[in-house]
Amino acid sequence: MKELIERLRSKFNAKNVKEQRKNFVFITVAKKDLEGCVLYLKEFEGYGHLTLLTALDWIEKDQFELVYHLHNYSNKTDVSVKTFIDRKNPTMVSINNLWAGARVYEREIKELFGIDFPGCPRVNDPFALEGWQEIPPMRKDFDTKKYSEETYFPRPGRYTKDNVAQMEEQLYPVEAEVKNGIAKTVRKK
Amino acid sequence: MTEADNEENKIIKPDFSDPELFCTALPKEVPRMNNIIQKFYDWAQANSLWLLAFGTGCGSIEMRPLYTARYDISRFGIAPRPTPRQSNLFIISGYVSVKTLKRIIRSYEQMQNPKFVIGLGSCTINGGMYWDSYNTINRLDHYIPVDVYVAGCMPRPEALIAGFDELKKRIKEGRGEGANEYAKNFAWYKANQKKIIKDWDMPDYNW
After folding, report:
1. In a designed cystine with B130, which of A47, B80, B89, B136 is the match (CB 3.0 to 4.6 A)?
2. B2 lies in a domain?
3. What is the pLDDT of residues B169-195, one digit of tens each?
């Protein structure tokens, strides 16, 4: 594992290397190096299985993070290759020529995050959201509760009950009264 | 992309108002007779429920044991059927996403009158654990008429059998009028359905 990390460092300028376990490592590469890095891991290091491809929305950094999780069957090790792409007009190079299974992941990411993968077959077809007209729903700036309340006729009468408050009321009424009374007076001031 | 691909991907939109290809008639309300013959019909219909085996959500797992020797719904006169044309009882089992709702509406409208609907699980009542999801509906009775709700997440097969009993009681009392309700409030149901199904690519009434 140590030699592999050194090779990735020298070849693809891998940063933020984090050894999660002794057989599992996270690395971060630049966007332009990613396809080469994944291809190198597949062809020369034996990481032939794409376990998953997923995206994360870092709205405060104005970036999307893509995670390519690869597995090696011969020595039972995993490498997770991460890359950051711009959040405005997000585009990523498709790896469907390396793994055909990446097509499903890329189509899903296109639908849920709006990240485009040019060249991936049927990437623009709807996956689960037929006729979706809002912004992609897995983005952090999409308010799913507000959308649901506006669209799907919420049934009135749904409420939540805080367990702590209920226990205090039922088992320790005097203490709860004192505590809430203190909180009230403090808040008034 | 080549020209052949474009030809393949071209979506053919049929003319849904063409009476030769699609039925353009809207559903009709069948008035009740309110005599002893109607009572006999109600009794017969209550004991002849044919279930559409269409699992829309996780609740369809609870429907499978019903067909087995242990729970055996055949003893209640209920039999699973593979197509909506042969069945008159529709169990909406669990959460309903917008994509599934489109298929549910098509199946429901193809079923023969009189038809009954059981909403199984909390998700059909108020959204359940998916109450704030962007893609699952909250109230099933805004889209198709529902006769009986079975609460729970998920209800056991025994609860579903209790739901069948309740439905039979309703039908014998003459309250299983879902199909007539649908025909009566057809415009309201269609407006609700079209509000969330944005790519409406089927006729208004899929009989």
Report:
1. B136
2. no
3. 999 998 989 999 999 999 999 999 999
